[in-house]
Amino acid sequence: MLLLALDTATPAVTVALHDGDDVIASSSQVDARRHGELLLPAVDRVLAEAGVRLDAVTGIVAGTGPGPYTGLRVGLMTADTFGLALGVPVHGVCTLDGLAYAADLDGPFVVATDARRKEVYWARYADSRTRLTDPAVDRPADIAGEVAGLPAVGAGALLYPDTFPQAHEPEHVSAAALARLAVERLKAGEELPAPRPLYLRRPDAQVPKNYKVVTPK
Q1: How would DSSP label each residue in the chain?
Q2: Mind listing the pLDDT tens digit for each residue in 97-108?
Q3: What is the pLDDT of residue 106?
């Protein structure tokens, strides 16, 4: 097994390589505006650090979000392209699950990432491996009652201390955590889903209301 994991659903552009026993190389850079520029060089850097070629990879793991449309699609399209070119399976893992796994908390807690527009992407967890709710996008004040008294991790939690007073790191997901979680699930016989994006809301770009269709005469 040699899994290449990547995630661009948060401001972190993160890549890792897992050999079935542990992560053997990883890279993470935080830059919300340069996912497309940073991802492929990060893949090259991780492969070089591990001393392997891309064609040695036996599977791809991609963070599926939720996340902003532009950043999220960079990672998912790259993962799909690698999978097609190499003829290897591509597995999807929820980005919030990767953050929860990295947090390594025993009791109930919340993961919240920054969804912009004064909102967060979030979900509740029973522990670091068990998600209790589907990922959602909401204003922090609107979910204050649901998350009251619970520890929280992620950039969204750190941004809104009034709603998440027990917020702490990790701030962003790491591909290393995604890879470890994916390997754990695969070894347990779990079938990981296809890497389909969790956008949760429509993209910012919209067709103008007064748009007129021009037809040839």
Answers
A1: --EEEEE-SSSEEEEEEE-SSSEEEEEEEE-TT-HHHHHHHHHHHHHHHHT--GGG--EEEEE--S--HHHHHHHHHHHHHHHHHHT--EEEE-HHHHHHHHH--SS-EEEEEEEETTEEEEEEEEETTEE-S--EEE-GGGGHHHHTT--EESHHHHH-TTT-TTEES--S--HHHHHHHHHHHHHTT--PPP------S--S----TT-------
A2: 999 999 989 889
A3: 87
The total number of residues written for the chain in this structure: 217
List pLDDT tens digits, range 1-57: 999 999 999 999 999 999 999 999 999 999 999 999 999 999 999 999 999 999 999
Question: What is the model's pTM?
Answer: 0.91
Radius of gyration of the chain (CA): 18
Q: Are strands 23-30 and 12-18 parallel, antiparallel or unpaired?
A: antiparallel
The whole-number pLDDT of residue 40 equals 97
Can you tell me the distance from the alpha carbon of 28 to that of 38, in angstroms, rounded to the nearest whole number? 10
